[in-house]
Amino acid sequence: MKLNEIADNAGATKSRMRVGRGIGSGKGKTAGRGVKGQKARTGVAVKGFEGGQMPLHRRLPKRGFNNIFGLDFNEVGLDRVQTAIDAGRLDGAAVVTVAALKDAGVIRRAKDGVRLLANGEIKAAVKFQIAGASKAAVAAVEAAGGSVELIPVKKPSAEKAE
């Protein structure tokens, strides 16, 4: 098998229909668009239009609240940290920070900070410097001989620049 011998299976591809090329082609004149009207023209996008009836997305009530000051944390379980320490990607003796977790591949990108959750268990005595932790996670880390130091997170400023 050579590169120039590679071909699709028979019937795998269909050649495109050339529209608007005379009455004999079967797709001449209106090119399969019917006659006149908005949808026969170019640049038409009538998404959500229901023929004048109130569209579904407007009949349903609005719901929820989006807090513009809310913080988006990376949630990291104790089991992920222990796995990284066992694999040698994370130094258990050093202080574990957001940068250390990112370098170890435990988190992909730093958002507003890291919050430690009590998923799984941790055996190493590790010092954490992170934005948040659940009570169960703090208890598990301290039971293993480590400590959790919560660092304040800088919230986005709400004042206008004057």
Characterize this entry briefly.
The protein has 162 residues and is of the alpha/beta class.
The total strand number stands at 6
**Main sheet, how many strands, which sense, barrel?**
3 strands, parallel
Oligomer: single chain
Strand content: 5-15%
Arithmetic mean pLDDT: 90
Encode the helix/strand succession as letters: HEHEHEEEHE
Q: Give the neighbour order of strands across the main sheet.
A: 1-3-5
Radius of gyration: 30 Å
Number of helices: 4
Q: What is the CATH architecture annotation of one domain? A: Ribosomal Protein L15, Chain: K, domain 2
Q: How would you sum up the global shape? A: elongated
Question: What does this molecule look like?
Answer:
With 162 residues, the protein is an alpha/beta fold. The protein has a domain of 77 residues: Ribosomal Protein L15, Chain: K, domain 2, CATH 3.100.10. The protein is 19% helix and 12% strand. It has a 3-stranded parallel sheet. The protein has a 3-stranded parallel sheet with strand order 2-4-6. The radius of gyration is 30 Å and the shape is elongated. The model has no long low-confidence stretch (mean pLDDT 90).
